[in-house]
Amino acid sequence: MGSPTLLPGFSFSQTSLQDFSDCPRRFQLRYIEQLQWPAVETEPVLENERRQQEGQLFHRRVQQHLIGLPAEKLTRLANSPDLSRWWENYLGTKFKYSGYAQHVEITLAAPVGTFRLLAKYDLIAVKLGARVSIYDWKTTRKRPRDEWMAARWQTRVYRAVLVQAGAHLNRGDPFSPEQIEMIYWYAEYPSEPACYPYNTTQYKRDWDALTSLINEIGNHHHFPLTEDEKKCAFCPYRSYCNRGGKAGTMMDEMAETELTGDKINFEQIAEIEF
153: which residues sit within 8 A by CB, 6+ positions away? Predict the structure, then answer.
């Protein structure tokens, strides 16, 4: 049997790149071998599943509101304490995209060699020829540190892909990096968004890093385990690697997120993966 490799045409996303960065073996098991997930990610299981489902429902309500459904009708559907609180916080926030063209739940793709890099956006708000704002809704219990989010592949992928593949949103003219900002809006912390402007130096750094990483993964034949075993407590593949059968707790996960930047349920709660 040959070494595992990716087939040409594989579509990368910020999630798959983060998986490889966190643990190459996780990337292999999830995307190359496509194994089933035998272990729960976080304890308690029912509470974790509820949180994920409510996060997805919140995204759906915001999407429906942005495409024109009346807020009062959607408010009646926010029928849990978390959903109700997040929805009230959303309606009470004065977002700065009035007068912007709004592109909701849009996916952009940019070629990278024989592969593709995809980014699925909650909202791209465009003021033609002037500014473009990427909005991403987050429903995490704990607000991540701004510097941690700045270094995450999501922040780097979303802005770089918009430069590469967003010209059709700007009458055929590519956005310059200086026109772009990315905003994470936290439903639990509505007055504390995280804003990340962009510039040409950052874009060149990001695109070079993305191209290099994707080419590295495409040529990879060995996918070692992470040396940071703290990450294994929140990985559903840990039983394949003999890294334990018990999941970390939600409180442990929140502490891990703040201290080390480990990603597990953060993106599952906040983003429906494409």
Answer: 14, 17, 18, 21
Q: E strands within the chain?
A: 11-12, 42-43, 101-112, 115-127, 131-138, 180-186, 189-197, 248-249
Concatenating the DSSP letter of every residue in 135-194 gives: EEEE--SSPPPHHHHHHSHHHHHHHHHHHHH-GGGGTTPPPPGGGEEEEEEETTEEEEEE
Q: Please say whether the beta carbons of 226 and 260 come within 8 A.
A: no
The torsion angles phi and psi of 230, rounded to 5 degrees, stand at -60, -35
Q: How many CB atoms lie within 10 A of CB 215?
A: 14
pLDDT digits (tens, 9 = 90+) for 26-37: 999 999 998 876
**Lookup result for tokens 């890093």:** 209
Domain limits of the chain? 11-216+229-270
Q: What is the pLDDT of residues 224-271, one digit of tens each?
A: 999 988 888 778 888 788 776 554 444 334 333 333 333 323 333 233
Tell me whether residue 97 is exposed, middle or buried, using C-beta atoms within 10 angstroms of its C-beta: 0 to 12, 13 to 18, 19 or more: middle
Q: For 69-91, write each residue's pLDDT tens digit.
A: 999 999 998 889 999 999 999 99
Torsion of CA 28, 30, 36, 41, to 10 degrees: 110
Other Cβ atoms less than 10 A from the Cβ of 172: the count is 7
Domain covering 11-216+229-270, topology: Lambda Exonuclease; Chain A (3.90.320)
pTM of the entire predicted model: 0.83
Residue 16's identity, in one-letter code, is S
